[in-house]
Amino acid sequence: MKRTKIYIITLLSAFALIGCSDFLDTYPEGGTITEEQKIAASEANPALLSADVAAMYANMIAYTGVLGSGYHNDFGYAAACLYMDCNSADMTSANIGYNWFGPNGSYADREYSSTRTFFMWSLFYKQIASANIVLGSSDLETDDPTLRAFIGQALAVRAFDYMSLAQLHQFTYKGHENKPCVPIVTEKTSSEEAAKNPRASVKDVYELIMSDLNMAVKYLKGYKRPDKGYIDQGVAYGLRARANLIMNNWAAAASDADSALIVSGAVPYTLAEVSKPAFADAGDKTVMWANMITENNDIVKSGIINMPSHLCSFYTDGYVGVGAWRKINKPLYDKIRVDDIRKQWWLNEDEASVLVDKPIYDGWREVASSDADFGVYTNVKFGPYKGEAGLYNQVAAQDWFLMRAEEMIFIKAEGLAKSGNTGGAKTLLENFVNGNRMVSGSGYTAPSGAAELSDEIWFQRRIELWGEGFSFYDIMRLKKPVTRVVDGVTSFPAAWQFNIEAEAPILLWLVPKAEIEANKGITEEDNNEKVAPPKA
Amino acid sequence: MRKLIFLFVCFIAGMSSVLAQTSISGKVISGDDGEPVIGATVMLKGTTTGTITGADGEFSIVVTPENRTLVVSFIGMVTVEVEAVNNMTVTLSSSVSELDEVIVTAFGLSTKKSFTGAAAVIKSEELAKNQSSNITNNLAGKVAGVQGLAANGQPGSGSSIRIRGIGSMSSSNAPLYVVDGVPYDTDISAVNNADIESVTVLKDAASAALYGARGANGVIIITTKRGKGKDAQVKIDTKWGNNSRAIPAYNVMTDPGMYYENFYRAMYNSRVNKDGVDGAHEYANNYLLDASQGGLGYQVYTVPNGERLIGKNFKLNPNAKLGYSDGTFTYLPDKWYDEVFNPKNLRQEYNLSVSGSADKLTYFFSANYLHDTGIVSNSDFQRFSSRLNTDYQVKKWLKLVSNMSYIRSDSRYPDEQVSDRSSGNLFFVSNMLAPIYPLYVRDAKGKIMTDDRGYTLYDYGEGKIVNAKRPFMSQSNPASNLMLNTEKFSNDYFVGKWSAVAEIFDGFKATATLGATTANTHYNMLQNPYYGQFADGGGYVSVQYGRFYSINQQYLLTYEKQFGEHNVDLMAGTESYKFKNASLSGFKTKVYQDRVPELNNAILDPSTSSSSYTYSTLGFLAQAKYDFASKYFASASYRRDGSSSFAPENRWGNFWSVGAAWDLKSESFLDNAEFIDLLKLKASYGAQGNDKLLYAGSASINFYPYQDQFVVSENNGEFATERSYKGNRDITWETSYNFNTGVEFSLFSERLNGGVEFFSRKTVDMLYYQPVAPSMGYTELPVNIGSVRNLGVEIELDADIVKTRSVTWNVYANATFLKNKILELSPELEGQWISGSYIYKEGESMYNFYIRETAGVDELTGDPLWYVDILDAEGNVTGRETTNNWSKGTRYEQGDILPKVYGGFGTSLEAYGFDCSLEFAYQMGGRVLDNSYLTLMHSGYSSDAGRNWHADILNAWTPENTKTDVPRLNSANQYSNATSNRFLISSDYLSLQNITLGYTLPKRLLERIKIEKLRIFGVADNVALFTARQGLDPRQSFTVAYSGSLYAPIRSISGGLNITF
Fold first, then answer.
1. Residue B826 — φ and ψ, nearest 5°?
2. H-helix or E-strand containing B426?
3. Element (H or E) spanning B64, and its range?
4. How many A-B residue pairs are in contact by the CB < 8 A criterion?
5. Phi, psi for B337 (deg, rounded to 5)
6. Which helix (H) or strand (E) holds A376?
7. CB-CB: which of B9, B469, B555 is closest to A15?
8. pTM for this structure?
9. Searching chain A, which residue's CA lies closest to the CA of residue B719?
10. Are the beta carbons of B571 and B556 closer than 8 angstroms?
11. Sheet of B119-123: strands edge to edge?
């Protein structure tokens, strides 16, 4: 019996042993981190709080961050730019299965249950959520310069997102102020409110954008950012210039664009700089704000789920190499003057361009031209990572420009032209084109009439900013049609050869089905009109 | 808890009394082999006095002059009553009755007769018939209530088992696997089928509540073999056989001309309304072969100069000759399937086992080698396994039990073959590719070319070698990938369990168990540097290591005692379980040697990552079983369980069960009904938990679902913490309440056995992802809301129709009727939730499609039509009309698509040494969305160019064929085959699972060569499948079948020998 007692005691102490209270406290190591781990890490090292700010920018380069794996058209804001440019009249590509942006070319993307509709919504709202996390955990009255810079950036990021959402989901501000736009979610919105959150009016959305940007400009004063991936005061001015341009506050747009140039110190690309493939390095002086891409980013590691794979003709390892080359539409190309260096940003009818007229490009051309869809009008604007060396080391780590000096010059010129100072606008435009783009250095004259000058500025934007995600916003803002076929001339594939009238319902993106299902504030009837894609 | 156990101990101690008079000693032996029976219970009849036999079967017991009757019993043997005599020998014979057969249950043993719950047992003889290398593939159809879904046929891969329906929405529906009493969370293919003594499927709360948090989806207990008998018995089983594809491909076009003709018509139709007849012919003729304009890209016919390939009558030019040369290359379509699939696949398996006992030791040793080559080159499964199970009687009162197995498996597992829609998937490509494309590159004379390395030159369709581009799956040639790429897994598993069992005193037994499992997985992959996606980068190497480690501790105290006609069996204990899963991976590009899948063989773009996660549970459990005179049975169990998956304040839950059974046969009123051997009524009720919330839209378990989760990423050299998952601290278990009742019977000297059970399995506090407006920046939040119920009836029958000395003919059948119903959803959903193509609606099945309904084809235009509701001003539906705009079509719920009944049946015959058996499985009354058929019924839309057509497309609308349900071909209409109920099809199937034929040589022939048994046999698995459409395999999914794009199931036919000596 003694023995028995020993056993029982032993057993019972065994129960006690494995009954330790922390036995069930488990945690992941590496991979994801939990909220508790994140708080503990930040307590140990307060500098990690800046990781929440950086998260806003990381959203813009997230690898399949919205739709999940399997969607090779989900690589952040650059993907959204390609969605929009492929909707436009200016960028063409082959109608083949490997062209992930083909449904944007055909407007098959305007289906409210489609992943593309969901992407164009959630990409921005995810970033808004990141900004709201920063704002929600900050005291807006703080005097701490570091915290004020965090707040200023979050406000500016949020304004950037609402500006994108507003331009995609409703027609432009002017004349549509009271139309339903998108639901507003701020750091103050509770989950109950978000579950019953109607589409705010265009006016309300722009009021938020303006108030966020006004505050951002104030909070970012004096902030020295670590690199051009962050928003500083110059960028905030630039964003406010864009907003004012959309709202037709012409003088304010010109003045903000001017402030943006002055504060940032950015200067446009010189003729020499764009006489070779460029637009790949945020270190270039023209760049005011960019997605800073490094070789370590998941989108780069993925090899093919990134901007260069779908846009840069030098990255032959990507989707371009199997036929998804991005080309300019012939009518637009034909309008570019022969003495404008920008005519060389695309291969001509002989598949030639001075940009790639060097022996070092022979190897690339051999690989590229082995694909049947490579050729005439293919862009050579976007250069390889690390310049010409990148022709050999296929790494898709080019930076993605979000704002550069040329755009500010155009905003300023348009603001001046439309606020009555056509002379100033004309001079500004001529100085830029003659000084930076004309091979001869002169010979370019802009028209004098206000309307013609405005159209000329739009044309300049179309060629200068081609492929950078501005063409669709401009069509919407300027109430222009999508004119792919001009007098029977086009280089769009047969199935996508159609024109769309200005402010046609098909241009609007729809509120995605998932939003309607989970947000009681938006019903099916509240959605934009569902229309079939245009027919060729 | 401690207090409770002390109370329990005191209670038991108080019951035993001491009436010492005369001491008798004796021995219990087995009548079968004369060996001592260890652990037999010897009781003084009608008292609580008793003992248990020791290592050599010996016992001593104190008897009184008035009472000298001993009741000697041992599980699995016939209980006897004998008069006590000193130095007596009691002989027990094996129970011939199946009713007394031991079944393995949660933390213990029971007999079929006394069990109050619902469990099904599959014994080794039945399991041994099937050749699968994964036990989960052997369960379908064998017992009621069990369904298996096999996503693909890759050797070594298993089935997802579902027990009594689907109880969860966002959490795992997989049962818990327990091997030799220890929870098992790694690959089940590491358990060698031949080592398995039995599989017990625990289906209700009474049988599984002791597994608490993890038992809600049922439990599958796998028990391995142990030593029996004194003399060593050596068994050798060998099999050699052949694999082939078990289901045919879909009925697709094979004639290249026919494909061109139809595609031409699709392009023509897209333009004829706008450009007129001539314009449309011109368009189709111009672009038919232009891949960048939505055309096909390859000319494989030679037509006379200036003539059209397809005429204006939509017919292939009669002068066209198959094969076209452009002066450098010849373009000739190949039959991809025939070229690549090798019918000569050897399957071989060898099993050796030695078992027996010596002195105080019993042992079972086994070794196994299996090589299954699948049906695609570069895909196979090779396994070596070894096991040693021993029991050692250290002292009279102490036994050590040890199970150890080591398994090594090597598989070539071409990942792409099991991923739908991947360009590297040979099954997908060979099923879906139009019959116009060449597999090989041929020179101008038509000879298949080789490259300067001597490799056959395959056509990747990317236009880099030949002057043509394939629009469908360009830059891929899965045949070449399989030849040139390397992809392999190596796994080492060690599964060990050690127990010490102490007979403390008088029915008390203490057991301490330690279980440990380690799985090391090593994956190497090399993508060749010459062709395909990674050629430009110089090839690609990926290496991954994974390490899984689990540790399980159990401390149990049991008390088993007979008090006259009262039998008591009590148990209390504690169990802890913890596992850690860690992985390390890296990849690089630009490889030096083309067959060495190691990182140092490559030089560029290095990338590494590693991470781990840990999961643990802790439970305190107790169980009481009682029976009176083997007539009334009662049981109760309780477990308090904690899981690391939930926040500390929500992590503990209580799980329990009660059960009762009544054997009517033991009642006097049935004494005269001699044909009845057993007539048992039973009922049970209880609660079990499920803590395995999955990540939304994924099969991965979320081990930290209560917390927000972030991904640390790099943002130009700085940290960025992006939220990847929104958690909810309030979530806890979902709880499943199971009610089970039924009748079991055994009639005519146990020749007709069966039962009927009714069950209701109701899940409450369901873990599910509440949809959140994407404008919040995340799209779902885990919550515990809602309830779903599975109601069902199971019927099982098993009859020995003929049973004589030399002939036995048995038939069996089982059926499970199941009805799934959502009882309650989150209140803010107001009764229904639409998620993707599904609708979750209170009162309806969880498996309910919400899709458009086809209204046929417009007879005038050939456009596809869908129904759309007509609404009045208030939004009420007043009727419905049709539309040719898919987007505008109204979506309708399609009702329950799950099969109404499923099960299996079979027969076996043994006569004069011959044996033969057939096994079938079936399901009926369900539907499935046939996605492969859907994709094969496209209308020639540009992104479908080069995708094959099902032969049904020949019935497409034309001006001459207007009465059809197949819309007009139209390369501008991407919605012709958009998802609608047109593609729902019956998921009924009947599958001939297994045929076995054998002949056992007569014993007298073998005696001379000292062989006990020699059997020659042939066996065929996965023999035939009958479904509603050729090519469709409804066993892959309850919802959407991708049968045409995944590794096809394998039919294996083998012959072999069983030798015992």
1. -55, 135
2. helix B426-432
3. none
4. 298
5. -60, -50
6. none
7. B555
8. 0.87
9. A51
10. yes
11. B119-123, B196-202, B219-224, B176-179, B182-184
